């Protein structure tokens, strides 16, 4: 039963992921796609958390944290690029 | 699962190859990236996907997944990263210098 | 066209977060031999944290703060990794032979010393520096 | 505050040494004892007792969590409604908070709580531009934030 | 190394010093130093005549590449000796002649002499080598040095064209010959000609006999300018005249004759050999003589005459090979060989002198066009005299040596009709007829050569410079040759026993040595035989034709002196280049997608074909691990993302999609129990997405593929095939691996990571311990990539900044 | 007992995640979608991580990384939301037609005021 | 421990490359270190070759891990020949580079890339592990990508992108092949794969895998119809680099083909090797037609490189001792000769400022030494005896006929003729004819450049005249290659 619930949760998350993909495909702006990517990353964290339960292993704890970090870094980098046309400013603004 | 993964790999190869045969620089680069994903998945699949624990020995498990392909893939991922990064830059500069990203316009003449 | 941007939230959060990530990356590096992690992952994570700093502040500020020549660091990493391989040669073992032993120290307890860690340091430096060089170079050409 | 925490930690470790037992349980015991000691000695210390501030933080957190849950419920409603009933807008909200840190926390709270999201600051960082999903009345939104978050944050930092 | 080896190598060694002598001893014409070499060599070989005449042969072998069966074996018998003496003797005369012909002040004579010595050594090597490969080595060197000599005035287009033509044709033959030699080696197991003679039966009866023979003959025919490969020789006349006299009449062009004679003991008994050699020889004889009369260039005329005469010798060698078929040295057959050897020698003498005379005429008048020449007899009496001797000999007039060999030629071709083999009774009747007709034309062009140049009125205005007789030094060499022509003509048996008999013995090697048959006795008068009447007929008809030349001149065939095969050659060369360009441009389109299409189709065909051929597809469900529902969901997500990629029109969307795919793959790695992989994948994917965005954000939007839809379908079909192949092979390889009982090596890692490497994360242990080299190399790859990124972005050179 | 708790946490978490994604799909403009992404997705993931954390806690394993992740997500989600929405705004991504105020636009200096055009916003 | 000698040709250039990065600003120091290092590599290679010849195959298990589990480096005679070759070419091209390349290149890591390439190439020759081979391939390729595009001219960028794309594509299939091999045999060590494959009875899948790997190596080695990347990418970079590439790069692919198809896939010769022969013939033909079509000095040379690859593979396809010896001989010969020719193209460009032979003429008059060195080399390429090229061709033709492969022999001879034709095209256009360059250009001194190429020219003469010791040695090598059990047992220590 417990496992079934976990799998149901995974399937729900899969649908959620699919929606993110849909938004990324639909756009219409780059910002929309970044949002989709950001959300996608967050949903993946949930996915992996459930995997940890299912596989009964804590081996992916670091993965979860890293994913959290990267979703942030990635979104910020893309958004900043979008805003300023550069990722890294040469000089103070 | 191996069957399913093999099919996935095949689809990756299909799309990757298709993208390589398009005119746009970026599509080619994307195609290359897809192919590298595909090979990583294939390496993993070919070692057999029978479920064991992650290959960490200090967790009290006895059955493990094959660690070797994982190490190979890790190596392959890093290599693909290096190559892809370089490809990107190359495509970027090619575009900037040749003023086009259309590979048909990057044919060059026969008389060079 | 230049925006006068107030990045208050961004700067304050990343100030904290990037150092957390840096610490975490070092943890990942050391965890490597027994848990997920290692030189590669640690190196890439370190690169991410430094990238985050670059994202938040400007290049000049970070260059002042971390006066590191990443290009040289790549070489240094490579030389360390290739160099540790020579350790074995002095006692007649093949290239790249790694050694380890367990030691017990008061207070700290039993711990492992391995040449593989030195090797991994080389990997770590090489990966981190390479990743940063790639990103910074491309980003710098905009 | 840092000094007080350091003091407290020292006490906790001292406790563990005395007990000659180094488990996390011992540490917690030692820390609690430390809190008590620091509380009693607060008069001799230059600042207010740091646990007061901790308490304020806890209150802020609770407020925040409550608002977060509310926010999500609201989102569920919006999303699952067959017809979208939203009137979004971007409004400027001047804040009376002094330090950058305070403003930072405020803007984070704004974002994670119902209907609002910080989008930008004015150049001096004392006016927040907020996107709200319901702007029936602009002042209402501003007051809501004022009454809840600004006050709670001032509690923590004062 | 014997002295004979050093004799072969001497010209090569001396060639090294020629540029030095040229540079540092300018006052002395370098030719004087060079002259020493052929003279010394001639004097060295001359004494061999007596021992060779006594039936001795000399064989000295030095191992060169014994692993490949190649020995530097020098073999000297009568046939080689004849050539050696021609090469060195005429060589000496030619060098002497060249000293006066080439101006040391204005010409790069060091080049000339280097080439000439190179040729001399090579030619000696050809005729003295027993090992076919060594022979071949020298053979190609003669082609090469000939090319260089033709191109001596390399600033002239005609020289370049002539040089390239000769090289192309002779090397074509050379390569074919090499293949023939290799086949002979396959048949006999040796490269030694002498050893092959012992296996002549094996060779003739071998299934590869015919191709072997044809290939070797291609070499001989191209070298000896046999029809239809003769076209290079007239163009070779761009070479300085000493070269024409030496290589293109006296020696090199006879290398093919040498080779055919050499191989007669091996191939001689076969009808194919008989017919091919004699047939091509006969036709070349006719073609050459017919073409010669159309020439307006004095040297061109001589070139065609050479072709014709070489054809005659070749024809005789073919006829004479019948002796080997009968295995009997009956005079009926051997007279052909006798005639061949004798004429070969005679031709060298009279043609050499004629070339030199033509050179003198050219040198002194500045032209070789017979339409401008005439009346030189009085101005250049010595030259005219020598020319007359040579021309008369060539025309077959008594008492010159040419008459004698021509008589023997007539005798041989009339005898051939009585062979009673190879259908000679019927088809053989053509031989005397064609031979005679060709001789008539020979007579005619000899008349043209002499009379158009020397007879008639002299008009000094027609020449750019003041015409006078050549310096004495220049006349010495042709005079000596003329003297030989007369001497041999008068005392033909001077050569009979010393040169001709031993040569015949070499060519008919292996026949029962019947002294009668080889007892050569050449006489001027042997009754009112058929030969005599044929000669009289030649003179009569020849004179008639020459006298009526005025009428023939109007024929268009006369006006156009170019050989019909020359345009054929030219168009085939330009066709080759155009064709190559076409073929190359069709596949090397420069379009990356074409390349990928070709490559993919190749992959598809090859792998698919192999799978079908070996019925290699295998699948067995029992080895397959189970699939969870969420795994299916994940697969669907992945496939949706991947399949959407080709349809995405915005690059940013494509990049974001790529990010999704990367993240999903990390998820797969987690599902397949690999934390390290997932971590790496996530990190790298994030960085990559950022990089992609940086690099591609400013690129133009992805355009829709504008081509027709069907074209896309082709690509789609190809890519589908590639994907399918990858999948099918994956099934099969996996099933195959599960069915055999090899345990994967990874079990070792599971057992030993902790104990031997001190780590619990096996992946990491594999990376830093078991496969440390991989790991440090991948960092190297990353490092190179980083440096490369810097270089590509920051280093900006322009075309031509450096080389 | 803990299994039930975990199940609830996980189900709520996945449901909230779904809501977040639905919001991203359904809401009319990038700014409203940002709300869904930050609020629902964030809380959803926090629930899921908590579920996992509780699961291992019940097995006697305390996974600090998971707690860190929760903190991290809370810390960074607003930052991401802000910078994404701000960049969108500055690039001229259109607000929904029924949006009432845009005081941010009013604050921009005139020469920096972006043109509102989604097509162009995707492509500088 | 003498076995560690094997690592020197790999680790030395790799570390030197890394060290040179530190000195990227200083031309002098970089050149100084490069010379010392390249000489050291040459000495190490010679030493290794002698050692292996005297003492037999050297195997080192890196990290001291038992053999199929760790990565071994294996130095057999074949490998040491190739390593020595790469060192020789490396030295010559390096000195040539000193005199020709733009100083900006030196600032942007030209020398590091150079040494990394050599490290990669030597690694591919010496490794005994299939996956490690892949990694070394990538090191080599990446270094080659950057060296090809170094300078970033429009032409370079355009063509190197194609080069890169095609090679990356084939690298993917290398990984695919490795995955298949691992699935089918459960091991990665080349010798171990060879042993396991030899024990298996069913060979259908193995043939398919063999073909996949052949496809990969054939792309790297530029076989028909996979050579599209080669011609233009070799004409873009400076002569020193083109020369280095042609000397080393395609050889890596051919080496891999020979290694894999002798140690692992030799159980169905009639299929695989016949197929290889067909490819060999077509490669020769299409390559040389490309050369005939060209008027670009480097272009002609580049297309010849394709064509000559066919000869090398032909030796493998014939699969007799002499043929294999011939193939190796041809590889060595071709590397030397073609490197020299590419360097000559650089000299010609330096004098005339062009690489189009139609813009050249009369070089023989103004630069006789250059002309004759070129001529000798060109004749060697065309297989004119007694230069090395002849023996390369000869040792393929004879066994080809012995094994009754008449067609491919005929093609090879025909191609030889066209090779001569196109080399003469260069010679007659550029060296003969009227002088087309100015008198200032005519006075350009080339002695300094020629002295760096001369060793290669001398080598091609010596290899011809002293063919015996070389063939004596190569026949040993061929016998060693033809008996896979020698390799397998030496590596696995059975
Ligand atoms: Na809010
Ligand atoms: Na198995």
UniProtKB/TrEMBL annotation, chain A:
Query: What membrane topology was assigned to this protein in its record?
Result: Multi-pass membrane protein
Q: Where in the cell is it found?
A: Cell membrane
- Provide the Gene Ontology terms for cellular component: plasma membrane
Does this entry carry the keyword Signal?
A: no
Span-the-membrane segments of this chain are: 6-25, 34-54, 60-82
- Main localization is membrane
Provide an example Pfam family for this protein: MrpF_PhaF
Q: Does the keyword Transport apply?
A: yes
GO MF annotation list: sodium:proton antiporter activity
Superkingdom of source: Bacteria
Which key words are in the record?
A: Antiport, Cell membrane, Ion transport, Membrane, Transmembrane, Transmembrane helix, Transport
Q: Which family does it belong to?
A: Belongs to the CPA3 antiporters (TC 2.A.63) subunit F family.
Name of the protein in question: Multicomponent Na+:H+ antiporter subunit F
Protein's organism? Geomicrobium halophilum
UniProtKB/TrEMBL annotation, chain C:
User: Which Gene Ontology CC terms are recorded?
Assistant: plasma membrane
Q: Give the stretches traversing the membrane.
A: 7-30, 36-57, 69-91, 111-139
**Membrane association type:** Multi-pass membrane protein
| Localization in the cell | Cell membrane
UniProt signal peptide: none
Q: Which residues form the Na+/H+ antiporter MnhB subunit-related protein domain?
A: 12-131
| Assigned keywords, A-Z | Cell membrane, Membrane, Transmembrane, Transmembrane helix
Q: Name the InterPro entries for this protein.
A: CPA3_antiporter_subunitB, MnhB
- Answer whether the UniProt record assigns the keyword Membrane to this protein: yes
Q: Name one Pfam family in it.
A: MnhB
Q: Which family does it belong to?
A: Belongs to the CPA3 antiporters (TC 2.A.63) subunit B family.
Classification via PANTHER family: NA(+)/H(+) ANTIPORTER SUBUNIT B, NA(+)_H(+) ANTIPORTER SUBUNIT B
Which NCBIfam families does the protein's record reference?
A: PRK12573.1
* Designated name of the protein: Multicomponent Na+:H+ antiporter subunit B
**Source organism per UniProt:** Geomicrobium halophilum
UniProtKB/TrEMBL annotation, chain F:
Q: Which InterPro entries match?
A: PhaG_MnhG_YufB
What subcellular compartments does it reside in?
Answer: Membrane
Keyword Membrane on entry: yes
| Organism superkingdom | Bacteria
GO MF: sodium:proton antiporter activity
Check the record and name the Pfam families matching this protein. Answer: PhaG_MnhG_YufB
> What are the record's GO terms for cellular component?
membrane
Task: Fetch the NCBIfam families from UniProt.
Answer: CPA3_mnhG_phaG, PRK12674.1-2
**What is the name listed in the Swiss-Prot or TrEMBL entry for this protein?**
Multicomponent Na+:H+ antiporter subunit G
TrEMBL record, chain G:
Q: What are the protein's UniProt keywords?
A: Antiport, Cell membrane, Membrane, Transmembrane, Transmembrane helix, Transport
GO CC entries: plasma membrane
Kindly list the residue ranges recorded as spanning the membrane: 6-23, 32-50, 70-96, 108-127, 133-151, 163-184, 204-230, 242-265, 271-293, 300-322, 328-348, 369-392, 404-427, 448-475
Q: Which residues form a coiled coil?
A: none
- Asked if the keyword Membrane belongs to this entry, the reply reads yes
What InterPro entries does its record include? CPA3_Na-H_Antiporter_D, NADH_UbQ_OxRdtase, ND/Mrp_TM
Tell me one GO molecular function of this protein.
antiporter activity
Q: Which N-terminal residues, if any, form the signal peptide?
A: none
Q: How does it sit in the membrane?
A: Multi-pass membrane protein
Q: Which parts of the sequence belong to the NADH:quinone oxidoreductase/Mrp antiporter transmembrane domain?
A: 128-419
Instruction: Name its cellular compartments.
Output: Cell membrane; Membrane
UniProt record, GO biological process: ATP synthesis coupled electron transport
Which Pfam families does the protein's record reference?
Proton_antipo_M
What NCBIfam families does the database record attribute to this sequence? PRK07691.1 (NF005818)
- Family from the record: Belongs to the CPA3 antiporters (TC 2.A.63) subunit D family.
Q: Which PANTHER family match?
A: NA(+)_H(+) ANTIPORTER SUBUNIT D1, NADH DEHYDROGENASE
The protein, known as? Multicomponent Na+:H+ antiporter subunit D
């Amino acid at each position: 039963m417990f496992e079934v619930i976990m799998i149901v949760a995974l399937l729900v998350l899969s649908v959620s992921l699919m929606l993110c993909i849909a938004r990324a495909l639909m756009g219409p702006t780059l910002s929309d796609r970044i949002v989709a990517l950001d959300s996608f990353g967050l949903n993946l964290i949930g996915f992996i958390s459930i995997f940890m339960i299912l596989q009964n292993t804590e081996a992916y704890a670091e993965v979860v944290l890293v994913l959290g970090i990267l979703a942030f870094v990635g979104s910020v980098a893309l958004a900043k690029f979008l805003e300023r046309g550069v990722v890294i400013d040469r000089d103070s603004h | 699962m191996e069957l399913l993964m093999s099919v996935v790999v095949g689809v990756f190869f299909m799309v990757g190859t298709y993208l390589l045969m398009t005119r746009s620089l970026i599509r080619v680069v994307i195609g290359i990236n897809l192919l590298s994903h595909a090979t990583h998945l294939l390496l993993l699949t070919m070692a057999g996907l029978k479920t064991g624990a992650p290959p960490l020995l200090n967790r009290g498990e006895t059955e493990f997944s094959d660690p070797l392909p994982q190490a190979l893939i890790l190596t392959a991922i890093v290599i693909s990263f290096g190559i892809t990064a370089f490809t990107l830059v190359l495509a970027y500069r090619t575009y900037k210098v040749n003023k086009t990203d259309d590979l048909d316009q990057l044919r060059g003449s026969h008389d060079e | 066209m230049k925006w006068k941007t107030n990045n208050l939230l961004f700067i304050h959060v990343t100030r904290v977060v990037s150092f957390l990530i840096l610490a975490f990356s070092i943890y990942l590096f050391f965890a490597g031999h027994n848990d997920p992690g290692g030189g590669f992952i640690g190196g890439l994570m370190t690169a991410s944290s430094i990238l985050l700093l670059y994202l938040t502040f400007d290049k000049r500020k970070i260059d002042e703060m971390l006066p590191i020549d990443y290009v040289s660091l790549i070489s240094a990493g490579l030389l360390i990794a290739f160099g540790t391989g020579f350790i074995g040669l002095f006692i007649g073992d093949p290239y790249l032979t790694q050694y380890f032993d367990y030691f017990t120290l008061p207070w700290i307890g039993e711990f492992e010393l391995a040449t593989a860690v030195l090797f991994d340091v080389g990997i770590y430096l090489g990966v981190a520096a390479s990743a940063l060089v790639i990103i910074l170079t491309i980003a710098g050409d905009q | 505050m840092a000094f007080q925490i350091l003091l407290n930690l020292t006490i906790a470790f001292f406790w563990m040494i005395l007990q000659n037992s180094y488990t996390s349980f011992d540490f917690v015991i030692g820390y609690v004892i430390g809190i008590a000691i620091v509380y009693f000695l607060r008069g001799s210390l230059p600042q207010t007792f740091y646990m007061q501030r901790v308490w304020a933080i806890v209150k802020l957190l609770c407020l925040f969590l409550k608002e977060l849950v509310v926010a999500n419920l609201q989102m569920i409603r919006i999303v699952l409604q067959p017809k979208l009933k939203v009137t979004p807008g971007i409004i400027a909200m001047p804040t009376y908070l002094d330090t950058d840190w305070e403003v930072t926390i405020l803007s984070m709270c704004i974002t994670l709580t119902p209907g609002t999201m910080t989008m930008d600051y004015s150049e001096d960082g004392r006016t927040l531009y907020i996107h709200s999903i319901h702007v029936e009345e602009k002042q209402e939104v501003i007051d809501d934030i004022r009454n809840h978050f600004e006050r709670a944050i001032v509690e923590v930092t004062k | 190394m014997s002295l004979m080896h050093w004799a072969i190598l001497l010209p090569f060694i001396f060639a090294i010093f020629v540029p030095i002598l040229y540079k540092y001893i300018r006052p002395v014409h370098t030719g004087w130093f060079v002259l020493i070499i052929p003279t010394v060599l001639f004097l060295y070989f001359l004494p061999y005549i007596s021992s060779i005449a006594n039936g001795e042969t000399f064989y000295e072998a030095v191992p060169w590449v014994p692993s490949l069966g190649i020995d530097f074996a020098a073999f000297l018998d009568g046939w080689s000796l004849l050539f050696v003496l021609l090469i060195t003797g005429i060589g000496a005369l030619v060098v002497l002649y060249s000293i006066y012909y080439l101006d040391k002040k204005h010409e790069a004579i060091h080049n000339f002499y280097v080439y000439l010595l190179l040729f001399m050594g090579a030619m000696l090597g050809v005729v003295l080598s027993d090992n076919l490969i060594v022979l071949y080595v020298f053979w190609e060197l003669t082609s090469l040095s000939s090319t260089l000599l033709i191109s001596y005035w390399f600033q002239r287009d005609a020289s370049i064209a002539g040089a390239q033509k000769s090289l192309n044709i002779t090397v074509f033959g050379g390569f074919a010959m090499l293949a023939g030699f290799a086949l002979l080696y396959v048949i006999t197991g040796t490269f030694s000609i002498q050893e092959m003679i012992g296996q002549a039966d094996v060779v003739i009866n071998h299934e590869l006999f015919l191709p072997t023979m044809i290939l070797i003959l291609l070499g001989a025919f191209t070298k000896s300018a046999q029809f239809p490969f003769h076209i290079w020789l007239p163009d070779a006349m761009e070479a300085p005249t000493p070269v024409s006299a030496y290589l293109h009449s006296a020696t090199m062009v006879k290398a093919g004759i040498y080779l055919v004679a050499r191989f007669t003991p091996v191939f001689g008994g076969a009808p194919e050999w008989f017919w091919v050699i004699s047939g091509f020889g006969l036709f070349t004889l006719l073609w050459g003589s017919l073409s010669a009369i159309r020439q307006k260039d004095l040297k061109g005329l001589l070139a065609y005459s050479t072709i014709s005469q070489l054809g005659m010798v070749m024809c005789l060698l073919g006829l004479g090979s019948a002796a080997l078929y009968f295995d009997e040295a009956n005079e009926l057959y051997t007279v052909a060989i006798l005639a061949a050897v004798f004429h070969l020698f005679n031709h060298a003498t009279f043609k050499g002198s004629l070339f030199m005379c033509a050179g003198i005429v050219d040198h002194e008048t500045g032209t070789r066009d017979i339409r401008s020449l005439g009346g030189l007899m009085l101005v250049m009496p010595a030259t005219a005299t020598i020319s007359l001797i040579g021309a008369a000999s060539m025309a077959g007039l008594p008492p010159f040596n040419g008459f004698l060999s021509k008589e023997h030629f007539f005798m041989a071709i009339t005898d051939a009709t009585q062979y009673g083999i190879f259908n000679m009774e019927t088809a053989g009747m053509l031989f005397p007829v064609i031979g005679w007709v060709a001789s008539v034309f020979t007579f005619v062009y000899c008349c043209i050569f002499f009379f158009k140049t020397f007879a008639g009125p002299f008009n000094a205005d027609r020449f750019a410079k003041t015409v006078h007789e050549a310096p004495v030094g220049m006349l010495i060499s042709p005079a000596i040759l003329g003297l030989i022509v007369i001497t041999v003509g008068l005392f033909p048996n001077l050569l009979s026993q010393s040169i001709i008999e031993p040569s015949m013995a070499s060519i008919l090697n292996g026949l029962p040595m019947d002294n009668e048959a080889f007892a050569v006795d050449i006489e001027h008068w042997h009754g009112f035989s058929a030969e005599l009447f044929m000669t009289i007929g030649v003179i009569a008809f020849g004179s008639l034709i020459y006298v009526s030349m005025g009428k023939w001149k109007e024929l268009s065939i006369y006006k156009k002196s170019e050989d019909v095969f020359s345009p054929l050659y030219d168009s085939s060369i330009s066709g080759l280049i155009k064709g190559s360009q076409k073929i190359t441009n069709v596949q090397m389109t420069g379009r990356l997608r074409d390349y990928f299409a070709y490559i993919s189709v190749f992959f598809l065909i090859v792998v698919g074909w192999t799978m079908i051929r070996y019925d290699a597809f295998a699948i067995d469900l029992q080895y397959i691990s189970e699939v969870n529902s969420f795994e299916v969901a994940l697969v669907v997500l992945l496939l949706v993302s991947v399949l959407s990629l080709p349809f995405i029109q915005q690059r940013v969307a494509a990049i974001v999609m790529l990010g999704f795919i990367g993240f999903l793959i990390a998820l797969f790695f987690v599902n397949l129990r690999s934390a390290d992989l997932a971590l790496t994948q996530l990190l790298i994917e994030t960085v990559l997405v950022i990089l992609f965005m940086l690099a591609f954000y400013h690129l133009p939007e992805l355009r829709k593929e504008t081509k027709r839809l069907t074209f896309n379908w082709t690509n789609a079909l190809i890519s589908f095939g590639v994907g399918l192949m990858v999948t099918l092979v994956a099934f099969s390889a996996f099933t195959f691996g599960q069915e055999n009982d090899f345990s994967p090596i990874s079990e070792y890692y599971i057992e030993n990571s902790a104990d031997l490497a001190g780590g619990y994360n096996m992946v990491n242990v594999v990376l830093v311990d078991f496969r440390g080299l991989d790991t440090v190399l991948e960092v190297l790859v990353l490092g190179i990539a980083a440096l490369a990124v810097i270089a590509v972005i920051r280093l900006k050179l322009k075309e031509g900044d450096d080389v | 007992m803990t299994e039930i708790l975990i199940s609830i946490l996980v189900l709520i978490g996945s449901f909230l995640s779904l809501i977040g994604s639905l919001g991203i799909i359904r809401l009319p403009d990038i700014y409203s979608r940002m709300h869904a992404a930050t609020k629902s997705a964030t809380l959803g993931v926090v629930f899921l991580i908590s579920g996992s954390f509780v699961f291992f806690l019940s097995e006697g394993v305390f996974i600090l990384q998971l707690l860190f992740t929760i903190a991290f997500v809370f810390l960074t989600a607003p930052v991401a939301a802000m910078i994404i929405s701000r960049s969108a705004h500055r690039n001229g991504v259109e607000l929904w037609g029924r949006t009432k105020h845009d005081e941010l636009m009013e604050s921009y200096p005139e020469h920096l005021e972006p043109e509102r055009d989604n097509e162009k916003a995707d492509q500088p | 421990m003498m076995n560690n000698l094997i690592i020197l040709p790999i680790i030395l250039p790799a570390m030197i490359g890394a060290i040179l990065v530190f000195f990227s600003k200083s031309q002098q120091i970089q050149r100084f270190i490069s010379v010392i290092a390249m000489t050291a590599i040459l000495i190490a290679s010679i030493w290794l070759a002698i050692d292996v010849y005297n003492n037999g195959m050297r195997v080192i298990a890196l990290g001291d891990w038992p053999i199929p589990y760790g990565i071994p480096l294996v130095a057999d005679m074949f490998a040491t020949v190739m390593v020595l070759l790469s060192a020789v070419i490396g030295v010559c091209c390096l000195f040539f580079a000193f005199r020709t390349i733009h100083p900006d290149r030196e600032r942007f890591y030209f020398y590091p890339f150079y040494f990394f390439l050599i490290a990669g190439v030597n690694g591919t020759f010496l490794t005994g592990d299939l996956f490690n081979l892949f990694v070394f391939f990538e090191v080599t390729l990446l270094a080659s990508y950057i060296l090809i595009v170094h300078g970033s001219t429009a032409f370079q960028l355009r063509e190197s992108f194609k080069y890169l794309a095609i090679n990356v594509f084939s690298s993917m299939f290398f990984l695919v092949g490795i995955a298949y091999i691992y699935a089918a045999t459960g091991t990665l060590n080349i010798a171990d794969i060879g042993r396991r494959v030899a024990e298996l009875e069913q060979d259908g899948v193995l043939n398919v895998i063999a073909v996949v790997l052949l496809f990969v190596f054939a792309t790297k080695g530029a076989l028909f119809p996979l050579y599209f990347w080669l011609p233009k990418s070799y004409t873009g970079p400076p002569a020193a680099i083109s020369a280095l590439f042609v000397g080393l790069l395609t050889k890596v692919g051919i080496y891999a083909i020979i290694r894999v198809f002798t140690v692992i896939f030799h159980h169905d010769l009639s299929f695989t090797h016949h197929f290889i022969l067909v490819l060999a013939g077509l490669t020769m033909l299409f390559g040389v037609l490309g050369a005939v079509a060209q008027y670009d000095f480097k272009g002609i040379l580049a297309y010849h490189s394709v064509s000559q690859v066919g000869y090398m593979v032909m030796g493998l396809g014939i699969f007799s001792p002499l043929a294999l010896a011939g193939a190796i001989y041809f590889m060595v010969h071709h590397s030397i000769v073609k490197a020299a020719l590419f360097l000559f193209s650089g000299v010609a460009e330096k004098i005339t400022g062009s690489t189009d032979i139609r813009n050249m003429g009369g070089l023989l008059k103004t630069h006789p030494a250059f002309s004759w060195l070129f001529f000798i080399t060109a004749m060697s390429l065309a297989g004119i005896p007694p230069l090395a090229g002849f023996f390369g061709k000869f040792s393929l033709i004879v066994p080809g006929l012995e094994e009754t492969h008449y067609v491919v022999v005929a093609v090879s001879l025909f191609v030889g003729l066209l090779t001569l034709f196109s080399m003469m095209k260069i010679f007659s256009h550029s060296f003969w004819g009227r002088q087309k360059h100015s008198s200032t250009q005519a006075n350009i001194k080339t002695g300094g450049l020629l002295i760096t190429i001369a060793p290669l020219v001398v080598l091609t003469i010596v290899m011809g005249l002293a063919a015996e010791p070389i063939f004596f040695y190569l026949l040993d090598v061929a016998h060693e290659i033809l008996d896979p059990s020698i390799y397998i047992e030496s590596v696995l220590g059975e």
